[in-house]
């Protein structure tokens, strides 16, 4: 397993597959690179995909110290450096979209084109999930909480025909401290004031039936980032990139091809 060394010495595991211009894929909160297992090959006709295990997940180090989306973005830069990648297209979903925002803000020379999926600007300006969703996810019964998360990720019809395994429910190997610190990193994200500085061409993707991250956040990103374009997927929930992979993947590929 190859590793990049972060600025604080933490080892960040990464994976590189395919060939062509680099596309960095950033996963959701408390997930390793396996988040992308169901769809990354869809990009290999024209792209080399790069993923990483966030600190606290997968094969990366798991220090018990403060995490943040800015720190995860710096870890991603360390991965690009380890691979001698000067510039890459960046596609982040859920918390990965928050990480991608900082990557584009702090390292504009490293991001050629940006795709932000099912994510939000964070902070006081973002639109929070409703109380019913929060209660469903915080149930003391692990089985019930898992089912609630599945229902927020996928439509009932898709779940009925796809019994799993599911790649988007979190890294089961994470220690409790890392899971807690991932949650805080996502909750504390706030890029609102710096989003107007993003200069990379930006596509915002979101399922219009997403209750885990309300679709209003996609509209905020579109309004806040200069020249950003928004594409909503009718009927899609949070894991739109997986359930609606044919439509979503094609839209991402088309966008990247339009910005060579």
Provide structural commentary.
With 260 residues, the chain is α/β, with parallel strands linked by helices. The protein is 35% helix and 17% strand. It has 9 helices and 8 strands. The chain has an 8-stranded mixed sheet, with helices on both faces. Strand 1 (3-5) and strand 2 (11-18) form a beta hairpin. Helix 1 (69-82) packs across helix 2 (95-106). The longest helix has 14 residues, at 69-82. The model has no long low-confidence stretch (mean pLDDT 97).
The share of residues in helices is: 25-40%
Strand fraction:
15-25%
Q: What's the N-to-C terminus distance? A: 31 Å
Strand order of the largest sheet: 1-2-4-3-5-6-7-8
Largest sheet: 8 strands, mixed
Tally the helices: what do you get? Answer: 9
Order of helices and strands: EEEEHEHEHHHHEHEHH
Low-confidence stretches: none
User: What's the total count of β strands?
Assistant: 8
Mean pLDDT: 97
Report the radius of gyration as a whole number of Å.
Answer: 17 Å
Helix vs. strand class: alpha/beta
Globular, elongated, flat, extended or rod-shaped: what is the shape? globular
């Amino acid at each position: 397993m190859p590793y990049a060394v972060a600025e604080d010495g933490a080892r960040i595991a990464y994976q590189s597959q395919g060939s062509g211009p680099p596309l960095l894929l950033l996963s959701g909160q408390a997930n390793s690179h396996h988040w992308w297992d169901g769809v990354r090959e869809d990009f290999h006709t024209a792209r080399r995909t790069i993923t990483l295990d966030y600190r606290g997940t997968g094969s990366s180090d798991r220090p018990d110290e403060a995490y943040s989306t800015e720190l995860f973005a710096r870890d991603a830069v360390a991965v690009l450096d380890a691979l001698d990648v000067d510039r890459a297209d960046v596609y982040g979903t859920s918390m990965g979209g928050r990480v991608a925002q900082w990557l584009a803000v702090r390292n504009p020379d490293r991001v050629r084109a940006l795709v932000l999926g099912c994510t939000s600007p964070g902070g006081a300006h973002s639109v929070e999930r409703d109380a019913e969703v929060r209660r469903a996810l915080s149930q003391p019964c692990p089985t019930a909480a898992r089912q609630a998360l599945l229902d927020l990720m996928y439509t009932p019809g898709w779940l009925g025909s796809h019994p799993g395994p599911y790649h988007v429910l979190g890294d089961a190997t994470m220690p409790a401290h890392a899971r807690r610190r991932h949650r805080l990193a996502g909750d504390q994200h706030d890029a609102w004031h710096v989003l107007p500085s993003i200069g990379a061409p930006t596509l915002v993707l979101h399922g219009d039936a997403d209750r885990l991250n309300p679709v209003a956040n996609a509209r905020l990103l579109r309004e806040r980032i200069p020249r950003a374009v928004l594409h909503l997927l009718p009927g899609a929930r949070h894991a739109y990139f997986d359930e609606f992979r044919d439509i979503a993947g094609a839209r991402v590929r088309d966008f990247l091809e339009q910005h060579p």
